[in-house]
């Protein structure tokens, strides 16, 4: 039950002339000699409350920004008000006061700097731009979940505390765990594979942690990943799922958060499927042709990702067939003895030789930045051990991982989208911190 009978501002527009009670925050007031305007805001929008001097208790009521009010009265049509209606109150109740002055500018007349806004994140959420970013993010998450649920994928919940590294490498946060050490998960990798071994098509939205000491506009130490994993699938199978999921997410955001995108100055174009497949080798040639100092075997820098996007000329595309050294041990290598692989290599590269060096891994670049990576996984325990060795790692330390594929493991593949990354591109932000409600970076643990 509500505290009192309350009408949302959006609904008030359709209830012109009825006596209703609105509740929300004071965005701003404008006091003229003969009239007072109070802009009241709730989660559905803003309305201008108009007070005349003949009601002195309301006309003279002292009000500050972000005071919480309930206002009873009637909505009336208005030619001047932006929303087409304004509100004539017969009573105003101050429910709670806001301390003044506000520590951040949430009206965006003079936008406070990012650090200050993050320190006061709960207030910053009330500024139109920040508010719009998270509404768009919410539309993306909802669309992701709906699309996959609607297509037979089961949502699963991986653990966040793990006993050992899932990706290899040193980017793990260690935490004391009773008598032992444990780690914060850097990826739900093994868990999604284990779930797929039974449930076949699975997805998750889960936080992960990377202890890299970077401090870049595109990296955080805690992010949310949106992952799928599925059986009887190769890299191309899940690339197809990725582009369809992405397009659905963008379409939904465009439809459900049109006002927010407009406020953010974003005109979303929906990329056409199928996205172009650019091979890693071809991408290196393109960058070299443009004078970039990059060699076959190198990873792309963020600047090179942006340049490559210009050279390719598509907003969204795949980079596929990566050198094994750039991807994790579980990425499936090409097998030039295999008839299908041999045919593909011959058609794409004019020879099967290069197959020895390539794995079936891909990145999806969208809006000039990597938003997703995926691979076909190795489901064959012996091959997996060989690749672990090839990476200079000790297979004995990965027995818990390899063991998962000894009891009837079908071929499988999957990918991961970074939620904050995709929010960046969709909302047009250049700093990832704008796209995370409570970012965790090298310096920030609070709020
Ligand atoms: P990058 O090369 O961009 O640093 P990555 O290849 O190390 O990312 P993956 O392991 O492929 O990252 O993770 C899958 C997705 O998760 C990435 O495509 C990206 O969208 C997101 N992601 C990974 N690490 C970070 C991070 N530190 N900050 C923000 N997003 C990240
Ligand atoms: Mg990646």
- Give the name of the CATH architecture of the largest domain: 2-Layer Sandwich
- Structural class category: alpha+beta
The CATH topology of the largest domain turns out to be BirA Bifunctional Protein, domain 2
Largest sheet: 8 strands, mixed
- Tell me the CATH superfamily of the largest domain: Bira Bifunctional Protein, Domain 2
State the CATH class of the largest domain: Alpha Beta
**Total count of domains:** 2
Residues in helix, %: 25-40%
* Strand proportion: 25-35%
- The beta-strand count equals 16
Structure described in brief:
The protein has 447 residues and is α+β, with helices and mostly antiparallel strands. The chain has helices at 9-12, 56-59, 114-119, 121-124, 128-149, 189-199, 235-256, 258-263, 280-289, 302-312, 339-349, 381-390, 399-402, 419-427, and strands spanning 19-31, 36-42, 45-51, 68-77, 85-96, 154-155, 161-162, 174-177, 180-184, 201-209, 222-231, 276-279, 316-323, 358-366, 369-376, 412-418.
């Amino acid at each position: 039950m509500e505290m009192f009978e309350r009408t949302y501002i959006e609904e008030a527009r359709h209830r012109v002339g009825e006596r209703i009670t609105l509740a929300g925050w004071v965005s701003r007031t404008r006091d003229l000699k003969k009239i007072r305007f109070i802009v009241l805001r709730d989660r559905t929008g803003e309305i201008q409350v108009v007070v005349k001097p003949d009601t002195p208790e309301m006309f003279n009521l002292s009000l500050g920004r972000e005071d919480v009010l309930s206002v009873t009265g009637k909505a009336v049509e208005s030619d001047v008000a932006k929303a087409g209606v304004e509100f004539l109150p017969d009573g105003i109740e101050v429910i709670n006061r806001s301390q003044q002055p506000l520590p951040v500018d949430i009206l965006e007349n003079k936008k406070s700097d990012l650090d200050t806004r993050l320190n006061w994140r709960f207030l910053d959420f009330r500024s139109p731009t920040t508010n719009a970013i998270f509404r768009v993010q919410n539309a993306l998450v909802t669309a992701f979940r709906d699309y996959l649920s609607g297509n037979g994928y089961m949502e699963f919940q991986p653990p966040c505390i793990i006993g050992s590294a899932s990706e290899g490498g040193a980017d793990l946060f260690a935490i004391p765990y009773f008598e032992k050490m444990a780690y914060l998960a850097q990826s739900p990798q093994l868990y999604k594979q284990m779930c797929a071994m039974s449930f076949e098509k699975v997805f998750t939205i889960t936080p992960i942690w990377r202890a890299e000491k970077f401090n870049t506009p595109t990296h955080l130490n805690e992010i949310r990943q949106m992952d799928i994993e599925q059986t009887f699938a190769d890299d191309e199978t899940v690339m197809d799922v990725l582009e369809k999921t992405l397009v659905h997410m963008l379409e939904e955001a465009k439809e459900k958060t049109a006002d927010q995108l407009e406020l953010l100055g974003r005109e979303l174009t929906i990329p056409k499927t199928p996205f172009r497949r650019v091979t890693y080798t071809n991408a290196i040639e393109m960058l070299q042709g443009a004078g970039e100092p990059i060699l076959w075997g190198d990873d792309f820098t963020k600047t090179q990702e942006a340049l490559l996007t210009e050279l390719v000329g598509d907003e969204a595309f795949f980079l596929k067939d990566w050198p094994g050294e750039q991807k994790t041990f579980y990425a499936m290598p090409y097998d030039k003895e295999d008839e299908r692989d041999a045919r593909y290599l011959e058609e794409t590269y004019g020879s099967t030789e290069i197959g020895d060096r390539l794995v079936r891994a891909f990145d999806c670049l969208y809006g000039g930045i990597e938003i997703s990576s995926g691979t076909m996984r190795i489901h064959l325990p012996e091959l997996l051990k060989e690749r672990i060795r090839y990476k200079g790692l000790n297979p004995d330390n990965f027995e818990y991982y390899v063991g998962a594929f000894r009891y009837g493991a079908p071929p499988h593949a999957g990918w991961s989208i970074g939620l904050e990354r995709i929010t960046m591109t969709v909302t047009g932000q250049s700093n990832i911190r704008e796209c995370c409600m409570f970012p965790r970076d090298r310096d920030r643990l609070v709020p």
